[in-house]
Design brief:
The protein is of the alpha+beta class and 1752 residues long. It contains 43 helices and 57 strands. The strands form 12 sheets. Strands 7, 8, 9, 10, 11, 12, 13, 14, 17, 18, 19, 20, 21 and 22 form a 14-stranded mixed sheet that branches. Strands 26, 27, 29, 30, 31, 32, 33 and 35 form an 8-stranded antiparallel sheet that branches. Strands 40, 41, 43, 44, 45, 46 and 48 form a 7-stranded antiparallel sheet that branches. Bound molecules: zinc ion (2 copies).
Length: 1752
Amino acid sequence: MAEARLRELQLLPLLSLRWATWHEGQRRDTRATGASKPGAPGRSCCLVFFWVKKIKQILEALDYLDASIGVGRRMCMGKLRPNLCLSKVTVNLDPDRSPPSARRAATRRGDRARSSTTSGPASSRPAPARRPPSAVPVSPRPSLLSYSATRHPGRRPAPPGHQKSQMHTSVVVVVLETTEVYIVISLSTRRDTQVVYVDPTTGALRYLGKHGEDVFDSEAAALNYITDGSRVLSKSTTYAKALLGYAVLGSSALLLVATQLSASVPNLPGGGCIYTVAESQWIKIQLQNPQPQGTGEQKNIRDLADLDIDGKHFFCETRDVTRPFPSPMTLREPDDEFVWNEWLSKPFKDIGLPGHCVILLQGFAECRNFGGAGQQGGLVALIARRSRLHPGTRYLARGLNACSGTGNEVECEQLVWVPRKGGQRIPFSSYIWRRGTIPIWWGAEIKNAVSVEAEIYVANDPYNGSLQYYQRLGRRYGNKSSEANVSRQKKSGRVPVICVNLLRYGEGKTESVLVDHFKESIRYMNSTGKLGSTWIQLVNYDWHATVKLKGQQQTVEGLWRHLKAPTMVIGFSEGNYYDVRQQLSECKGSVICNDDVNGGFCMESIQNGVIRFNCADSLDRTNAASYFGALQVFVEQCSRLNISLDIDAMFGLSSRYSEYDGRNTRSLPPGWEERFDSVTGKSFYIDHNTRTTTWEHPCQEAPQKPWKRFDMTFDQFKGSTMLAPVNHLAELFLLAGDIHATLYTGSKAMHSEILNIFKEETGKFSKFSAVQNVRITVQRRYQNFVNDSSRQKQLEMFLGLRLYKHLPSIPMFPLKVLSRPSGCMLKPVPSITPMTDGGSSLLSFKRKDLIWVCQQGPDYVELFIYLGEPCHVCQLLLTVSHGAEDSSYPATVDVRVGSSIDSLKLVVEGACIPQCSNGTNLLIPLTGRIDPDDLAVTGKSARPNVQESSYLPLLYDFEELEGELNFLNRVVALSFHPSAVSRTPITLGEIEVLGVSLPWADMLTNSEHAPEFMEFLNKKSSSVHCDLGSKSFGNSSMPGNDSHGDFDMSEPHITENTFGNGEQTNFLDDGFDVNPFAPALEVPVPKVNKQVEECGSTQLYLNFFESLSGYNKGKGLDFEQMMKLEIKRLRLGLSATERDQALLSIGVIPATLDPNRSVDYSYLLKLSSLADNLALLGHTVLEDRVNASIGLEKGSEHAIDFWNISENDESCYGGACEVHALSSSQALATRENQSVFVECFRCERTVCKACCAGKGAFLLLNTYRELKIYGGSQSGGYSALADSFVCKSCCSEIIKRALYVDYVRVLHSLRRKDRSEKAALSAVNQVCQLEYRKASDLSQSIQFGQRQLKQILDGEESLAEFPYANFLQMVETANDSEPLLSLLAPFGTGEYKSYWKAPQDNTSVEFSIVLGGLSDVAGVAIIVSSCGYSTSDCPIVEIWASNKIHREDRAFIGKWDVQDIISSSPQLCGPEKSNRLSEEPRHIKFHFPNPIRCRIISIKMTLPHNGSRSTKFSEEFDLLSLDDSSVYESKPTNPQNSFIHAKRIVVFGSSLRKEVGPDTSGGIMRMKSYLDRSPPLGRFRIPVEAERLRDNDLVLEQYPLANSPGIAGFRLDFFSVIRPRVTHSPSSSELDTRKFSLTRMEDRFVNPAIIYIQVTVVKESGKLVVEEYRLPEVKANTPLYFDFPDLQQDARCVIFRLLGDVTAFVDDISELENLNLRNLPLASGLSLSNKIKLYYYADTYEMGKIGSLSAV
Ligand SMILES: [Zn+2]
Ligand SMILES: [Zn+2]
């Protein structure tokens, strides 16, 4: 029966091997287990019944297995063995896993939310547990989701008496018909439900944390909201139980969820369940983003989604399980070495949901319960965590790598505990060991798929990183920090690391070379003296040879002899868990507590040190040996927990069981005999040697002696130990062995039959095993040969490593679409039928298929888009939409952006929109506004020859034009112009504006994160204040250092300083010094700033230029000098324009200093490809360094950095330097002592800092070194060599120059980053003034502000809060005022006493506030400034409401005189009295008569002229000035220096949760009916007589046949190229950005690559017609049609020329798969070959058949 079920489960292929084994021994197995089950004496009569019941349970469990969907295959393997099932069933606490009868009562969240009886097929959500195994969790056809809040009570009910640990996490992924994706997450640890929206264009996750919008009380309420009460259809719904990760990968996104879990360790001591992912699913989300992406990248993404997760990964939602049990840390601080989804969980962390992705570990976790001898049983869990430092497959991940991790490295933990009822202590003990491949640099290669032995290679410097490896072990397993051990064990603080090496070391064995190296490495390690307290010992034990020679039993005995001493020294951890913390006060050992656990752990002892097992692969031998080692500890652990596994502890009955099993042949010493006492039924023993008898077995003379079993023979062990628990443990090891073998080799473990040695009949298994082993060997060989490299790639991508190689074009930080609702149209968009929504459907993704037909006639259509959040606008994304005729879509667009409607700036004019098919997505990249003056100076006008088409700035963009960056842009105005040929009204489709917005919510309202930001901003702003921003710089070889140093080279002593700094160079301010790139230091504030201020950076630049040309005595600069000049320029913070202006002012043509032009073309190609390669190497090094630092103390950094470039002329230090690559200078000889000397790796001479090339040079020279060992280009292990040096005379000139190129590229990118950070800073300054505050003050102030706001709102909602709301128009602000936006800023930001004020002579101001969304406004409140009101500055307040910006449309709400109000509320007058902040700030509320539904609120404040005011209020004044009119005339402005002021403006009411615009479908239908005409004309190809490509295929000349029709235009099939993310080595700020950044704005968005196509028509007459088109980005090979403005008759030749940033693109990786260097100057995908066709228009009917042949 079970077999049949398993077949149904379709797991047989996977199980076949083990199945065969099991099937044979099944019956025996059952009996054996039954027998060894603890049964109390005298209970034998019940036993039969007991077993009947148990078997029933097993069958039920199997039944359930069948019914439950896709229980992981690993789990099933467990269930196959009835004894295991027993354990499972009895241990099981998870309702989901319980048999059917219990299942009905199961309470999953969703089930809880509705009644458990289903209410009809359409509305019921299928309970996952009931689905058949074949069912795909995503229902393929649209299903109606029905979650009515009324039917299902909204709250997630917490059933009384149920603890929260019994609630299960539920994840529902809903894909709507519109392809929009929502992730609905209800965590077991929280009571509410979060909804995360996946942006359908960019894939960015959106979560605001607003109740009712993306936070709900229950899952049902959330689903109800998403599907709009089931009115919206969902395409598919996936139910999952945990969120594992998410990644946006260009044009698609991947979401990884666990759909089935198995509670593999249901209840850890102190709570917490470890779940194994039994089944997972990658949900692929197709995005609208047309960002070009290569087929190679797409294939890699598909590969990533094939990664096998199931059964091999586990997690715990409530406890940290990345550390040995019990972890002192909380879930929030896992040990990175074992977190496999760190990268994949980042997107959720970034939106402020750090706990929503589980912390996923790779490996194995499972537990069994076992009985002791007639006493209480215990639980044993085996947890094996795989390290991620050296991920990968067998033949690619061996030995050490650059992260100082070894291949297949696993930390194993054996946790034994005695479960008790709550309220008592839970005793437990935990034993840790490690396994991995040999920690030296080595590799192996298979020659072909069938060869038996792999060839082993050992690196030249095989111990590179070994030290770090052992240091890491020492840190993790040393318990010197624990007070308990120091006091109690009185050890010298040594941490023993015992390496048990199981390799063959006999003569002629291939592995013996490794053994020798291993020995040598440990000798070397100990000799360095750098191990600290770590103490390494190597034990060699040739496992295979011993087995062959002595058999298995003696092999085990031998192992025990070796392990006895180390195991006893290292010991294991023991302790008790107490539910109540108070009980811990009596704890004598150390106490471990953290916030994730209610009670705490009292540790009696803590393991000190670790045993590490290895064979060549850390596979079969390792698993077996570690089992026998752990077994000894297990027995000891049990005995310490008072679970005796001694067989004599079971009297009578139990002995008889052993008799039945034939196990009573316990070995007795020679001369002994065992007999039975017929009276008692007990055994007794006769010693014939001494002629005595005893009840005690002679081998158990001292039952309390610890570790006694180490001294036993195999038979003695077997005879004296209860074998059922032992075999339970063996089962765990068998399963774990298979998992780890599969992870590493793709097949199961071999030679594992030895683990069954304690079972009977092992002999009978062996023949199966032999077959099995052969089969696995073949399988592994095949897997390794065929799949290793692609699996390696998968793993790297999963971990987020080497993405610049596998997915080069993927941005790390996707843009946001900011035009979606709550963005809106500020003016109605004209349409051919009256549309009630005013055009807002153009901004909604839900109307993807919309064709908006504008009014007939107008020259152009203008749209004003208000963005949902302020941002820097980066891209405009258009969805082409038209009827049958594509010419109705506009031909060009102008884009203006601004922070308000009256400050719009033209960003691009006449951007071309080619004609293309309906639904095409066109991306128009935007720069910020470029100053026309800049354009005039730099660029073409600075070049001597304008028509220089062969010029390619391959090294870097010498003429970069810098667009303005503004993060407060809010309004985008688009002007669409129709095409010349269009005969129909303009049609429009969906419009999206993409940009980068600042993390406003975190900065302004998140009391947790705001202080962090504030500190960062303060640091930034202070650096702006005390110097000229980037116009200062540090040591010349420190890109990324935004502190300051000396740079003046005119005085020699300053050069000296440069070196002085050089030696102390360190890294980032935060001391993150794993980075080999950019040293930074608290450099003293330089005198340089003074110089900059005195003569200006321009002058300093020119001085430097002149000094350089002075050297050359009038000759032009050479390449290195030009680069130095550019380095100087970037250091001084000059833009390209400023440089050109300066140079032109002294009569130098800038182009003559362009390094791109200074070298010949083929050299340029070589140089740029070397620099590209260096960039990749640099990123590899950075990645490896970051990972290598995990678990280690921070290392110190060397003075010689990646580039070692000094912008000043350097000379040899002399002294010890043996290289003298530079001419030495006498003056510098004195510095010898301070300078740095290293040894050149090549010539082994001593070299000074100046004569040494940067680390990058060494990498470039060694890229191809020993690929077999260093993992080839795939894993780039050679980055470990980045600490080696090469002298300047050992590396060629081109390598030195490549370092210069890379260095300048880095500086360029830093300048961009700096510009964006500054723009961000200025944006923040326009919202609230920065001032330094203590973190705690700030978070308090924010919390206080939020309470204040709540007071004022009195239950209403705040509708006009920045960043969601904004001013529509600028309002004039006094100089000493808080910024205008502070009026809308959240409470608690900015200085408490300060406020906004108008300039003094303004007696009237008007605020137009665009609300956060369409709302029902109930009123407006003005928070009174700290100065309070006086009689002279009380304004008259008038309020209007409207939906669009037209003034005439707005509705007047009312007029209030504040004077009236304050007369009744005198507390509003005068300055704030007390310093105490009141809970309710002083404010005036203006209540509307009725709530008004609107989008814009206008508030006008007018200061009445004094006279009229005074007459009203002041009797005295009235008496004095009787003449009203004189007062009126003389005082148009305020006499008493009063001005309009306010602290905040609060608009309150209720927002409409959804954009419930009027139903527009009717109107849209009517619009479509206008487009029903069929196209009268088609495009036909103009035959070409000849064509010619030139200038790197960027220029195409086409010669049409004579008598061709006039040319109407041309078709261009878009290029298949990508824009790589990595273009230069990382700088220190790169690390910054990973950890913390204000803008997260990538280079490619600061400086987008824009390409143009220029078309020159040469007429017969010789006349030229030139047109230029700015190209949008579209998907590869999309046909684009460009119509000429006029028909081109008599064309002799048409020349197409690709211009612009062509060098920014490269080919897809599928083209370059095996190439390390780019051989081409340009991407071959940019070639115009076969891309362009000329066409004319003609009537399709007339053309007939010929037409169809030549249609274009
Ligand atoms: Zn030197
Ligand atoms: Zn050298």
